[in-house]
Amino acid sequence: MKAANYQYSPIETDRLRDWIAKWIGANWIWHARFLSGTETSATQTRRPGPRVPRELIKPAFPSLAEDVGATSVEFDIAIDSHGVREDRARGVPHIGEGRFGRPQAQVRITNLGTSSPLRDPENTGALAIFVFRRGPSTDSPKCRIWVCRNLVETDIADDLIGPVEPDVPVPWGY
Length: 174
Hints:
The chain is an alpha+beta fold. The protein is 19% helix and 31% strand. The chain has an eight-stranded mixed β-sheet.
């Protein structure tokens, strides 16, 4: 992150506004969350990767059945904030811990490159916005992501999509 007294140019801040305007719409499912240390490899976890509530992305991946034994799905993602494309990421169903310690069916996005912004420990605590394309289409990428790179971008996202609280994922568009 840049120094606190750094003045961000309108070009830097308009990129996120333009990105949100471009991908908003009925064909996309949105999800926002702050990345945790286990998701970004900050804790040296064995299987890093962001988690998304399974119920949220079922419209994007119809093959994710209700049962826990569902197979994983492969898809391409674009991390537009950093200009990175991750081909053949995997969505692996598992049961994670939801609010108040209750089990929650989730999908962990794995098979990310070691240099992926989603695995960068420096992005622990960063706001990440996930946008999934609805339906069984083969259009690529199936998921677009913006990882806020500074507090200014987080504030812009907060203004445009509403507040996001840690440990309280914000889904919309489904």
